[in-house]
Amino acid sequence: MTIAEIQQEIMRMKKEQDVCILAHAYQSQDILEVADYMGDSYGLSVQASKSRCKNVIMCGVRFMAETCKVLSPQKRVWLANPIAGCPMAEQLDLEFLRALKQKYPDHAVVAYINTTSELKTECDVCVTSSSAVEICKKLDADKILFVPDPNLGHYVAEQIPEKEFAFYTGGCPRHMIVTPEHVRKAKELHPNALLLVHPECRQEVVAQADYVGSTTGIMNYAKNSECKEFIIGTENSIVEHLQFDCPDKQFYPLTVQLTCMNMKITTLMDIYNCLKGCGGEEIALPADIMEGAGRCIHRMVELGG
Ligand code: 13P
Ligand code: SF4
């Protein structure tokens, strides 16, 4: 079958089976073309609960499918490719979190959404890159323990100087690859381009950016900007999508190394197989995790809306 034929078959099966396909912005173009919604982690979370479909296929990484299940317990939710995980989400386990909470007993615990559902059961609220500043500002706490990404944490802390922050030493292994040297070289090659970066990048990189935001934030900024050239400091699929959407503008990757293999593992055929009933993994979480993570995720939606 050709790609177009597989896409047609997916469109037919998803309608027949009442399936909504959600795709993170890091997914490939052929997947975005069959998706009902494409967005950043926050957009996906909200969209999951708004959708009227009985079934959801998540094209992204495991924590995104788990968030979707927690927000829509009555829906059947599949992760299109079961081995798609986020390494950052696995960095901090409950035991270590409990030790951190003992060290910072008077801090509210804010978890990046890139964490397991189990970890969320012992956090006060979770945040995404697009909602973190707003939620930490609104949170009724002067002291915040931000886990696991210290890069996003420091970016948030800078916007809210009136609050005190403590951090963990995790982070996204992909975005942390970017160095100021990559920035120097990219700016030298493209002196007229604006630098747009994700807050998971190191502080030294974020400090040089013209715009800092989530994947959707970066895409919207580039589309609405008068500028014609951009260096993109997040996963390289965003370069590809922007080039499709804005053929009259130029987009350059900050480094070729900014490729998330976990996000890239999902293919069009995974969706096809999932719909055929011979692929994907249906997300099932124990009742206590649904309840505990639900409290943390619902609070994010309440404060972030
Ligand atoms: P966004 O919320 O910006 O989509 O980020 C998710 C992510 O995993 C970035 O690496
Ligand atoms: Fe996780 Fe980083 Fe990949 Fe995002 S880019 S899914 S944070 S490993």
TrEMBL record:
Pathway: Cofactor biosynthesis; NAD(+) biosynthesis; quinolinate from iminoaspartate: step 1/1. One of its GO terms (biological process) is 'de novo' NAD+ biosynthetic process from L-aspartate. Its EC number is 2.5.1.72. InterPro entries: NadA, NadA_sf. Signal peptide: none annotated. It holds the Pfam family NadA. Its cofactor is [4Fe-4S] cluster. Coiled coil: none annotated. One of its GO terms (molecular function) is 4 iron, 4 sulfur cluster binding. Keywords: 4Fe-4S, Iron, Iron-sulfur, Metal-binding, Pyridine nucleotide biosynthesis, Transferase. This is Quinolinate synthase. It comes from Eubacterium ramulus ATCC 29099.
